[in-house]
Design a protein that fits this description.
64 residues, mainly alpha, 0% strand
Length: 64
């Protein structure tokens, strides 16, 4: 459910009522807040890394 919630939010910048209802049933309102906050936090980290062109760690996995 967290994957569905996050991917819909990232792709459309919002969450449909149906997805919200499923997420609320599975995670509760506080769980939705945590999931959305985490998605936003990791998005912000990606913006910072990309803006300053920070390379991956030597020997680390490169995600595409």
């Amino acid at each position: 459910m967290i994957y569905d919630l996050a991917t819909e939010l990232i792709a459309s910048k919002k969450v449909s009522p149906a997805t919200f209802e499923r997420a609320e049933a599975a995670l509760g309102r506080n769980g939705i807040i945590e999931a959305v906050s985490c998605a936003g936090f990791y998005g912000m980290i990606g913006f910072v890394l990309n803006t300053f062109e920070i390379p991956p760690q030597s020997g680390g996995d490169v995600l595409t």
